Amino acid sequence: MKRIGIWAVVLLSLAACAQADEVTLKNGDRLTGMIVRTDEKGQTLLIKTDLEGDVTVKWEGIASIVSTQPLHLTLKDGETIVGTVATTDGKFNVTTKNTGEVTAAKDAVVAVRNDAEQKAYDDQIQRLENPKLSDFWSGVVDTGLSLTRGNSATLTYNLAAKAARVTKRDKISVYTTAIYATDDTTPPSHTTAHAIRGGIRGDLNVSDKAFVFALTDFEYDEFQNLNLRNTIGGGFGYYLIKNKKTQFNVYGGGTFMQEYFSVPLDPTDPTSTSRKSGEALGGEELATSLGPRLTWDERFSFYPNLSNTGQYRYNFDTTAATKIKSWLSWQTTFGDHYISNPAPGKKSNDVLLSTGLRLSFGKGVF
Hints:
This protein is mostly beta strands. The chain contains two helices and 22 strands. Helix content is about 10%, strand content about 60%.
C-alpha cells in the first residue's frame, strides 16, 4: 500500500508538470508554472510558479517557451493569434483551434496574455471606449497648516483639491482652494484671511491636438468684500505638447462674469453692489514630470473686460510636488489673482504661498 501511495504522488506530480507551461532561459534555467502576461512595453514576462511564486524575467533573456494553456499573442499590425505556443528558431508556433498551426516572428509579437489577462485587457478597452461617469477619476488633496502659541496666537490653514476624469475623448475637471487665517494675539480674535475658490471645467477633444471647453468658476473673498464672483464661459484650445510626461496647451474664448459685493461699488449709490460684464479669455496650461519624483503644473488665464474696456483680471497658479510615496507628496503652491477694478479701498492683488502635504488617488498627472 505504501508503494501505491508513493507512485500515486509521483504520477500526480508528473501530470501537474505535463499541464504546466515551461520557460527556458538563455542561461539554461527552466521555469514551470503558468505564463500570465508580458508588461505594457513587452519587455518582461510574468510567470506564476508553484515554488517561487510570481517570477518576472526579461524577454530578451528567454530562449524558448512552451505553453499547455492557450495564449493570446498580439502582433504589431493589431492581429491577435490564440492557441498553445511553442517557440523554435526565434519564431512562435501557435496551434490554434480553428486554423491549425500559425507561425509568427518573435519580433512581431508585442504582447502575450493568458485567457484571464486577455479578458481583463478587453474589459479595460471596453471601459475606455464606453466609460461610465464614475470611471477613471484621479486627483489630489493639498493641505497646509501654520500655528503659533505663546507670545503670539495665530492660525493659518489652507486646503486645495482637484480631481479629473480623463478619457480618450473628453476630460472633466473639478477644483477648489480655500484659505482661512485668524489672529488671537490681542483680543478680540479676528479673521485675517478668508477666501474660497472653485469650479468645474469640461474639455471635449475634436482631434488629437484640438479641443473645445466649457467652464464655470466661483469665488468668495471676505477681504475683497466679494460675496460671489461667478464666471461662465467656453472656447477652444490646442495641445502644443502632449505625451506621457508633458502636456502643454493654449486656449482662448469668452466668458460672462457676475460679481456681488457686500459694499457699494459707487459711494454715491448704495444699490451698486453688483456688476456684470462680458470678457475675452486667453491662457495656457502646463503639467509635466521633471523627474521620477518631481512634478510641476501651472495655469495662467487672462480676462480682458469687453463691457468696460481697459479693465482686466488674471489668475496665475502653480504647484511643484515631490513624491514621498505613491500616494503622498510634499507640495509648494503659489497663486496670484489680480483684478484691475476691485471694490473701493481694496487692493488689486491677492497672493497665496503655501506648502504642505499632498494626498493622491488614481493615476492622474497634476
